[in-house]
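Let's practice the habit of predicting before peeking. Look at the sequence and jot down your guess about where helices and strands might fall. Then scroll down.
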Amino acid sequence: AEDGIRDAQESRGLGDVYKRQDEVTEFRKEGYLDPTYIGKGGLLRNSCDAKLEYNFLHLTFQEFFAARFIARKIKSVKKEDDDYWREGLKKNKFDPWFAIVWWFVGGLLGAHITTYGNYDYLKKFIEEIGAPPHDLLYKYELTLQTRIFQESLLLHDPG
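Done guessing? Here is the structure:
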């Protein structure tokens, strides 16, 4: 996922973020990933007819699905899921290619507030952004926290 997000031209494929390879193979057998179907669907394209390689037509789709994956890890009760997203955030917090992913995560966690009235996941995510490592003046972290908070409020109107 990280390599695909950093590749400005196209995503690397579906297997690492959204579906496992065996599921892609099953989808292909059922005709869902037929190249003619994909071309009409709008989300994916077959990068090579001979291989099971599919790319999102626009990087934003991959960023959204990566954010959805991370938001699910944040809401999970499994320790390995908690460790996974925290390590990923530490590793990529300052990477500009991930900024939109973090904004999407904030929006998805904001939707959880609207649906369930639970701020815990968003609070955990914003607090983790403020955790080490830090930038020199904390400016990037504060800007990122502010943007995530704004994204989370787009769907939630408390008044």
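How did you do? Helices lie at 2-6, 21-29, 35-41, 59-75, 79-92, 99-116, 120-129, 139-153.
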